[in-house]
Amino acid sequence: MNVRMKGIVKSFGANDVLRQVDFSVQGGEICALLGENGAGKSTLMNILGGVLQPDRGQIELDGETVAFHSPAQSLKAGIAFIHQELNLINDLPVYENMFIGREIKKAGGFINHKEELRQTGELFRNLDISLDPMAMVSSLDASYKQIVEIARALLMKASIIIMDEPTTSLTDPEIERVFDMLRTLKKQNVGVVFISHKLREVMEICDTYVVLRDGVVVSGGQVKDTSIPRISRDMVGHEVRTESLEQGAEVGPEVLRLENLTQEPHYRNISLSVRAGEVLGVTGLLGDGRSELFRTVFGDGGKYQGGIFIEGKPVRMKSAPQALKLGVAYLPRNRKENGIIKDMDILDNGTIVMLDRLARFGLIDRKKQAADFDRQRRELQIKMGSPSDMIGSLSGGNQQKVVLAKWLMTDPKLLILDNPTQGVDVGAKEEIYDIILRLAKRGVAVVVLSNEAQEIIRVCGRALVMYHGDIRAEVRGETMNEANIMRLATGG
């Protein structure tokens, strides 16, 4: 199937989101759709997926003009949209998830489980997927959930699959598993639209690319003919800095010390120290134990052995409220699951950890709440409408800033950031890096947990590399380079 979108225009009120956008993808091609949050990528794909209708422009499938007024119409035409938030039911087995909403029925109206199981197994064999159709979805890791979504789309005869940030929450081995699946799709002449902020992955898996900025196509072509710096520049409209931003700021007294901290099977015999004004990186491969280690420091990790010292005083961390009182703040990984509360507005999301301090006689002082949040909004340059808008109305980068504002309102001495730029575009990354360095200059001790070596190199003065729950080495200066970090993170 060949898809062409021609002259697509879409506005929401006075906001022109898409302006004369042309986009195409064909069978057997993986096309990267790139741009900052708010560039118009999701709107364009929602039009192709039948969620939205364009104000002007047309869609052609194999040369014939079509119009989609619902997702069902788009899917019937062979276009499937796999959203970032996967649409699976954990409490059902894989094969039942494959047929949700279009179950195979017997003559008496009962579901034909045997036939559903047979068709699922046959599809998995054809795609070379090593997965038990009877397995519960809740037992699958994130990559296999992605693969189930892809397989379900193929079962619905999809010829074009749109994938929105498919690798955001995956480990490196899981990403490679999904990439293997995409390579299989190419061989079967299925086209893929790959929406991602991870430009290294784009260079590895995609054939072509299109960059949107402010609702306009600014560049596109063959991936082999471009580079990460060039795509980054096209996305943000200016050169993106790649040098180390850490300036070796003066450090103050010790804020955190760990002595032989152990919690099997996650980590063991961890000893480290972080000082005021320092940005310490902790890196490795996902599953190395760093998140579990610093959840313990935040009082959210359960029982442990060894010592935790805050400003030289020994403490037993038992709860997050205790950690907050001691000046420890923790921005968790996976913003959508652990950082924001989707059913609350921006203001409440940005102040929720401070509500007890904002309460007077059992009632929240709304005036103070709004004033305190507005200070953080200006400091972090959060782009938003009204504070009463829902948190989901913001781009990923601005959602992350709201989560960061929430913790900064506690005036922390120690700020732990777990994958702080996960799922945000290159421009928002730069803004978050600047925020981290400003905090360090003010004397906050910052710990950055990240599996991106380039991120660690850019913002951290030194870094600890973990491997299977152990600290493998400390790197700084010339030893803090991508090749050395990867060697250590893989057990070298």
CATH architecture classification name of the largest domain:
3-Layer(aba) Sandwich
Under CATH, the topology of the largest domain can be stated as Rossmann fold
Distance between the termini: 46 Å
* Whole-number mean pLDDT: 87
How much helix is in the residues?
25-40%
In terms of DSSP E residues, the strand content is 25-35%
Give the biggest beta sheet: 6 strands, mixed
Under CATH at level 1, the class of the largest domain stands as Alpha Beta
Strand and helix map with partners:
Elements: E1 2-12, E2 15-26, E3 30-34, H1 41-48, E4 56-61, E5 64-66, H2 71-76, E6 79-82, H3 94-98, H4 113-126, H5 142-155, E7 160-164, H6 172-187, E8 191-195, H7 199-205, E9 208-213, E10 216-222, H8 228-236, E11 254-263, E12 267-275, E13 279-283, H9 290-297, E14 305-310, E15 313-315, H10 320-325, E16 328-331, H11 335-339, H12 346-351, H13 355-358, E17 359-360, E18 363-364, H14 366-380, H15 396-408, E19 414-418, H16 426-441, E20 445-449, H17 453-459, E21 462-467, E22 470-476, H18 482-489
Parallel strand pairs: 3-8, 3-9, 6-7, 7-8, 13-20, 13-21, 16-19, 19-20
Antiparallel strand pairs: 1-2, 1-4, 4-5, 9-10, 11-12, 11-14, 14-15, 17-18, 21-22
